[in-house]
Design brief:
Layout lengths: L10 H11 L4 E11 L2 E14 L2 E3 L7 H12 L3
Antiparallel strand pairs: 1-2, 2-3
Length: 79
């Protein structure tokens, strides 16, 4: 599976996703709320591949540097 050429998604990533989706993990949009002084602003951040019980996983199959940095920053924002 590892040496099989990709395409849209590798076999490894597809297997991980389907394993989790069968166990009630879902794809989910994350949001955060910014508060500055007395102003509140809702700010959607990104969509994660698998989410359940306050745990979010991003399943990557051919990640490049800019996307890796973006994903790390997106996961940092809620904390």
């Amino acid at each position: 599976m590892i040496s099989t050429p990709g395409g849209r998604k590798s076999l490894v990533s597809s297997d991980i996703d389907s394993f989790l989706y069968k166990r009630a993990w879902i794809e989910r949009n994350l949001k955060q709320n910014l508060q500055l002084m007395k102003t509140s602003i809702d700010s959607p951040t990104h969509k994660v591949d698998c989410y359940k019980n306050k745990v979010a996983l991003e399943i990557e199959w051919n990640n490049k540097d800019p996307f890796f940095d973006r994903d790390l920053n997106n996961f940092r924002l809620p904390f």
